[in-house]
Prior knowledge:
The structure is a single chain. The protein has 8 helices and 35 strands. The protein is mainly beta. A hairpin with a 4-residue loop joins strand 18 and strand 19. The radius of gyration is 25 Å and the shape is globular. The N terminus is likely disordered. One of its GO terms (molecular function) is DNA binding.
Amino acid sequence: xxxxxxxxxxxxxxxxxxxxxxxxxxxxxxxxxxxxxxxxxxxxxxxxxxxxxxxxxxxxxxxxxxxxxxxxxxxxxxxxxxxxxxxxxxxxxxxxxxxxxxxxxxxxxxxxxxxxxxxxxxxxxxxxxxxxxxxxxxxxxxxxxxxxxxxxxxxxxxxxxxxxxxxxxxxxxxxxxxxxxxxxxxxxxxxxxxxxxxxxxxxxxxxxxxxxxxxxxxxxxxxxxxxxxxxxxxxxxxxxxxxxxxxxxxxxxxxxxxxxxxxxxxxxxxxxxxxxxxxxxxxxxxxxxxxxxxxxxxxxxxxxxxxxxxxxxxxxxxxxxxxxxxxxxxxxxxxxxxxxxxxxxxxxxxxxxxxxxxxxxxxxxxxxxxxxxxxxxxxxxxxxxxxxxxxxxxxxxxxxxxxxxxxxxxxxxxxxxxxxxxxxxxxxxxxxxxxxxxxxxxxxxxxxxxxxxxxxxxxxxxxxxxxxxxxxxxxxxxxxxxxxxxxxxxxxxxxxxxxxxxxxxxxxxxxxxxxxxxxxxxxxxxxxxxxxxxxxxxxxxxxxxxxxxxxxxxxxxxxxxxxxxxxxxxxxxxxxxxxxxxxxxxxxxxxxxxxxxxxxxxxxxxxxxxxxxxxxxxxxxxxxxxxxxxxxxxxxxxxxxxxxxxxxxxxxxxxxxxxxxxxxxxxxxxxxxxxxxxxxxxxx
Length: 684
């Protein structure tokens, strides 16, 4: 009977999936719109996208995926995850992804969203097969070569008379990446990158070997009691990310439920080109006994830092550098300037309903951290050692999933977060979260849910909701109330604020998707007085409005249109900004063409507009549209065969309000900036 049902499912829906399968670029456009719905926080979103894309580029085996791995996708509700796990327990392994239609709570829309991220493997394929045979015959693997160049010349390339600022390398940006993996079994690979202006050189004293940045990893999973082992570069996320979190800092956006809870996903290979987020060493997870697991890691690596001599004639770190740029003498002097040792341990107790653990983390620097004192950073970390200890508890009860974590800095303050995701009714989902971070709490690798960019000096309550009228129409929203007990950057007084969002998603047909969104954020900010050296403060309010349509005119042509508008009001003054975007995509079998034409007009930086741009595979472009002008790009993808693909991308921005772009060493003359990018991908 199960096989008969599967055949009926496949015959009824195979054509639908073939015509409307979500391609990679649409997937990441959805990520940009849903998971990062307000890209104006102090975060490096391109690095966040890059890291997330690397993880999602290797589909999970739906028969082996854990609840935390499914939760990490940010697509399935807690109810759907529970139903899928119960279905697997009762019926055994799924025979095809189409069998998901037999799982309670899974409709075609959900299955279409999750299909790019999952696969069903035949478990018999691994029986009596060596690791080398599985690598050779069954792995998802690729090799990427990427070349990028700005066609205008930055000031740093013209500063021959200024040795400290002159860029030593060529204007070319080069990247290579290789990875071979089988989810739940193994993964190994490497990444290497040279940014524009950096040298290709062999310098052991500066820890550079050819490319300026090289990353590598090897991973084994599910080998008896050894559940996970990563050697090389890795990242770790446990609990709610208060203490130990990777580069997954999703903000508040159009997806108001699933992004609230962090996934207790453990150790993962680090494959991003971001040069400041990796740990380097060894990480492992062992099954100690039934339901009890131990996870630990040790990392020893070099970090970029501004190291200088103090009054006591000892070297101190005045700032940690995260740009990853090493183009001139000033930047090279900060390259790998200090050592960092990072040690962590987690004892975990896990059953079908409960996941609890105790965490410890210690970070030691070669030099003492002593950042320049200002009004707002008097409680910032200082010294050579930071230690945190804490615990987390997650519990599922029927249609509600509770989650929490507490962490304490042994030489500072505490932080805790607690929340619940509740499938209140078949059409109603709710999320509630409370967080409280002391001003003296210090965690360098946290990614907990927060209004600010760090888990420090914040208290807040978030309430999110989602109502599904039917499978084509839903409305989502949230309200977040937050307070800051101490001063912050550009806010020289204790303050509070709020933020809310409402979004309507409508899919009238398989080929058409529409959404409209409004968001308001109110925060206090300093106001400079020309008659005094003292600051006063006032509350600023920012409104964002989005209207977007994605229409498939035919099987080969799609049109996307978007209007974004914002206004910012403070101290009896209001400024505005807008961008109008038209995208078009042609799919001609082996050749796919995507193009954009955008008009933007913003009064100031407070009204800058962020919009995701299609890019070559596993690359991201998220420029800030700021000022007045036109933004254009064209992207060509050609699939030579099943193994080789090529991409070419040209983009330019033409401003009408300036004769130079950028500042300092990144300044270019003229009102136009243009970029060219080539990429080749080879699958084995």
